[in-house]
Amino acid sequence: MQRIVDGQFERFEVRAISGGHELRSRGLQVGGSWRVERRGDGAFIDTKATKEAIVALDVDSVTTAMLLAHTQKAGRFFVLRMHEGLESEVGRWDLALEEDGDHWLRTPSGLRAARFDASGALETEWVQLGSGNLVTQTKTKDQAQAGGLPLPPEKLALLTQAQSAAPAPQSSAPPPVPAPVPAPTDGSEPRER
User: Does residue 88 contact residue 52 with C-beta atoms inside 8 Å?
Assistant: First the structure.
């Protein structure tokens, strides 16, 4: 759970259950700094503090890209990343907005990109993993719940402008099959048209 209040990241809670054991991490902004507490099976493990202004939590989920699209402008900011065992690490991320509204993120672990539709729904997220890539795509949307959170006006304007300037999509239908060449009636070989 990540809680945003008035566009500001306020607190989070992460829970992982494996082999009958539970790890839990909670973060809260207190007096301009963050306190991040970890517990295992209810027992206290540790508390870390950081003065960086954290804007999101990254747990290798598309929710990070979605949250950043709705709360961050182009530029640098800090994200709290959770590793195995809910061990936390603060890292600086850089966001660049392309002319078509795509979000490009430079993170300590590699590049990421996200594309959204005009309703704010995530269309595609691309994550660089070492020498490979992980691509997540929305294949279908439930029409009753289509869309996502509305994008901020300046990001929606970029996306709308790019879509209106884009050429019409080409037909994906295969080209027509040419008519067969009629066989000659004089006994000669058929010729190409």
Answer: no
Task: At 167, list the tokens.
Answer: 């050429």
Residue type, 51: K
Contact status, residue 52 vs residue 30, Cβ threshold 8 Å: no
Q: pTM of the prediction?
A: 0.76
Phi, psi of 64 (to 5 degrees): -65, -50
Question: What would the two tokens of residue 39 be?
Answer: 């517990």
Phi-psi sector, 120: left (phi>0), alpha (psi -120 to 50), beta: left
Q: Which residue has the tokens 């392309």?
A: 98
* Residues 6+ positions from 69 with CB-CB distance below 8 Å: 103, 114, 116, 120, 122, 151, 155
Nearest to 118 by CA among 69, 52, 62, 180: 69
Residues 102-144: tens digit of each pLDDT:
899 999 999 999 998 878 888 899 999 888 899 998 887 665 5
Is residue 56 within 8 Å of 73, Cβ to Cβ? no
